[in-house]
Amino acid sequence: MSLEQWNERYRAGEQLFDAPVPLVVKFARAACGRRALDLACGSGRNAVYLAELGWSVTAVDGSSVALDVLRAKARERALDIDIRIADLERGEFEISSDKYDLILDCYYLQRDLFARMQAGVPAGGMIISIVHLADADQPDGTPKRAYPGELRKYFEGWNILHYREGQPQESCHQRAVAEIVAIR
Fold first, then answer.
1. CATH number, domain with residue 139
2. How many Cβ atoms from other residues are within 10 Å of residue 156's Cβ?
3. Residue 61 and residue 15 in contact, taking contact as beta carbons nearer than 8 Å
4. Residues near 183 by Cβ (< 8 Å), separated by ≥ 6?
5. What mean pLDDT, rounded, does the chain reach?
6. Residues with Cβ within 8 Å of residue 161, at least 6 apart in sequence
7. Are 105 and 39 in contact (CB under 8 A)?
8. Which residue range(s) make up the domain with 167?
9. Is 108 in contact with 38 (CB distance < 8 Å)?
10. What is the pLDDT of residue 182?
11. What is the pLDDT of residue 170?
12. Mean pLDDT throughout 131-143?
């Protein structure tokens, strides 16, 4: 889907969720440090949650409409969130090495981001990632959907705190997911 199509979805009121992802709620408090990066943050439900917990959050998305929603939420709640518009697929946002204690990548699959996310956390840093899984008739995945077991392969050698494949834990997502929480 193009960024303009995402903007249209956000303008139509789609994908405007307030509650943070349950996996983020479950594990964010266990993460060491206080610097977080929320990639493909959408309207910022996880970024807002982390900022309310006292994290210094950088939130990145390509949709200007979604980020306008996030800016409004941050102003309303007096939260200081570093909001960046960037097309991740075009490499418009650089993840600095060892900069973030927690990196979120929820419901967005861009395979070449995994190595950059991993480099972005220091030893002891945490990554939480959730991706949609391809249908059974697509055993090699698709450009935006992982094949079974693929997400786990990106984190070989990491301390895996949680890994699950199956139905999503949120009613707003209907497609099967793979989720991982890993510590470097």
1. 3.40.50.150
2. 8
3. no
4. 124, 125, 126, 158, 159, 161
5. 92
6. 27, 30, 126, 181, 182, 183
7. yes
8. 3-183
9. no
10. 98
11. 78
12. 90
* CA-based end-to-end distance of the chain: 32
Q: pTM for the full model?
A: 0.92
The count of other CB atoms within 10 Å of the CB of residue 89 is: 11
β-partners of residue 105 are 39, 129
Q: Give just the sign of the alpha carbon dihedral 9, 12, 18, 19.
A: negative
> Residue 35 is encoded by which pair of tokens?
């610097």
Q: Rounded CA gap, 39 and 86, in Å?
A: 10
Beta bridge partners of 59: 38, 83
Domain count, the chain: 1
In three-state form (DSSP H/G/I as H, E/B as E, the rest C), the secondary structure along the chain is CCHHHHHHHHHCCCCCCCCCCHHHHHHHCCCCCCEEEEECCCCCHHHHHHHHCCCEEEEEECCHHHHHHHHHHHHHCCCCEEEEECCHHHCCCCCCCCCCCEEEEECCCCCCHHHHHHHHCCCCCEEEEEEEECCCCCCCCECCEECCCHHHHCCCCCEEEEEEEECCCCCCCCCCEEEEEEEC
